Amino acid sequence: MKGWWRADVQLIDDFILIPFFSVISKKQITSNRKIVDDFISFFMIRKIQPVVLIMVWILSQAMNLQAQNAVTRPIDTLVLGAEEGAARLNALVKGAKNNVEVLPPDQTRVRAVLYSSQVTARSTMGAVVYNTGGILIDSGWVRILGSGHERFKRDLGSWNAGKTSRGPGDVPRLYYIADDVTGGLFALNGGALGKNLGMVYYLPPDDLKWMTLDIGYTDFLNFCFNGNIKDFYQDVRWKDCRK
Question: What strand order describes the sheet that includes 100-103?
């Protein structure tokens, strides 16, 4: 039994203790690595039987499910104000100076994607999900996630599921919103990248260090629609790269 314990400390860490403390953190109790390490040491020193660990795991999963269900909003609530969101998005697209292609949404998927992302159709992000299959900027150099399309199969919900989010109701600390042809990623900061929550960050493929753009989601769309894309990618774009 002693050997089993030592061999599976990492498993216990990943699948029992960290989920347990992450649930507690949703109730505004700060968790950190030292607490987890102290918790592991507590069990190891006292040689607690594995059945206790199983009980802790069951409790953590139950608390996790309860926490997720408590913040999950039904689809009928999320679609309220969809017309307002669509009108705002259409105005942004109509006034765009850059090459912007709005992919039509798959009506069989939009509600499911909106539900999985848990954003309202009134919001700018929700309007993109509910009214587009995705948005291609500058002939597809930048791809903004929507509800998915034959030419752009990724959608906002599934692209984050299992990566930044455990599912509807989970509050991700990082949320992917777009990518580009170079392999770069755009994401909203939910706390993983600092205290400026809701700001868009970019992960360039050359150095893999997140850099803040100091703008929110709506301003990010406005930049994609009207900003100087060429200057933003001046170090990676070459002459006639779009041919």
Answer: 100-103, 134-137, 142-145, 174-180, 185-189, 200-203, 211-212
Residue 119 · residue 168 · CB < 8 Å: no
Q: Residue 145's closest CA among 171, 108, 119, 173? A: 119
Question: In terms of C-beta density within 10 A (0-12 exposed, 13-18 middle, 19 or more buried), how is residue 130 classed?
Answer: buried
What is the rounded distance in angstroms from the CA atom of residue 129 to the CA atom of residue 89? 11
CB atoms near residue 160 (< 10 Å): 23
Mean pLDDT of the chain: 80
Mean pLDDT of 4-14: 35
Looking at residue 165, what is its pLDDT? Answer: 77
What's the pTM?
A: 0.70
What CA dihedral angle connects 115, 74, 168 and 121, to 10 degrees?
A: 40
Task: Please name the amino acid found at residue 57.
Answer: W
E-state strands within 104-192: 134-137, 142-145, 174-180, 185-189
d(CA 67, CA 143): 33
Q: Which residues contact 229 (CB under 8 A, 6 or more apart)?
A: 98, 137, 138, 141, 142
Report the alpha-carbon distance of residue 156 to residue 128 in Å, rounded: 9
Cβ atoms < 10 Å from Cβ of 205: 12
| Residue given tokens 């061999």 in the structure block | 7
Measured in whole angstroms, how far is the alpha carbon of residue 137 from the centre of its chain?
20
Phi/psi at 207 (nearest 5 deg)?
-120, -10
In whole angstroms, give the CA distance from residue 97 to residue 134.
18
Q: What letter represents residue 165's amino acid?
A: S
Q: Please state, in angstroms and rounded to a whole number, the distance separating the CA atoms of residues 131 and 87.
A: 10
